[in-house]
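#struct-pred
JK: can someone run the complex with cytidine-5'-monophosphate? inputs below
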Amino acid sequence: MTRRDGVGVTVRAPAKINVGLAVGAARADGFHELASVFLAVSLYDEVTATSARTLTVTCEGPDADKVPLDRTNLAAQAAELLANRHSFSPNVHLHIAKDIPVAGGMAGGSADAAAALLACNALWRLNTSYENLLALCAELGSDVPFSLIGGAAVGVGRGEKITKLPIGGEFHWVLALANGGLSTPIVFREFDRLVQGADIPPPVTSSPLIEALAAGDPTALADTLHNGLQPAALSLWPSLAATRAAGTEAGALASLVSGSGPTTAFLVEDAKAAAAVAAALTASGTCRMARVATAPALGARVLQAASGRQDPPPARRLPSQDRPHSDRRP
Ligand code: C5P
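RT: done, structure tokens with the ligand placed:
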């Protein structure tokens, strides 16, 4: 089997914010029933998959030191899952060029998983159907299916059952990145603590929110933004209130904590307002950095396919224990 050093498949996947997040009670499996309105924004990670002797992960970017490079990395788990389904070993090098904040409530790990899945699918020429890719995404994590489809969508169940939503125009955002991250399970536990003893209604998707997205109307969207995890994120990270105040004072139409936080998302009128709000947030010292972004962004997409001489598809594992070593590598 040939090596193709330096030749790989690169896939780009977007960050998300939850413009609406209704959180229900904890289920028996520990997950919470959600009605989530996802919106993909133009902040991206890129994953490049290259044939290798074994599964390895490297990462570059400002948050690279916070990314695990072992099999706890969701991109590594995506490669493993796909290879296991086809009974061969995930012999691939995954390089992650990371621009989405780590543990920021923007589904950066999920974006990497969706990107790795698509990249390995192309590298190994498996031609997995879109439906099966979505099912694999759902196994990997609640937000991973949305990272694959992008745009705008409603997610129910634990967030993984996705229906695409129409979106009528471009929305401008400023993202205030915090100095550190929040663990999603810890934020959900804080949610449980805050609502203890309360009667939690089943989560429902807001119709006005969906209409505002379909109309492409930022003022209407500003009135309907909501995040049921926000009180929990603010309880764990009280200084986010100062970040929100700084962005609102600078002219943002509305703000909300993105998912489980601690990134704060500010909806603004247009690109000019985005630049002004980003500058004011940076000057305020209430966040690590402010980034501008637009929505909707496309879901995970192949940017660069493997070129040059093609490897044959990976050899399947032989049923016998003593298969030749060379068969274990795609
Ligand atoms: O699905 P994912 O692995 O991304 O979820 C991470 C964690 O977030 C879960 O282990 C769980 O603690 C929490 N979670 C939840 N309810 C959801 C989604 C996630 O409680 N619907």
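RT: quick notes.
The first strand starts at residue 9 and ends at 26.
Confidence is low (pLDDT under 50) at residues 1-5, 318-330.
JK: thanks, will look after standup
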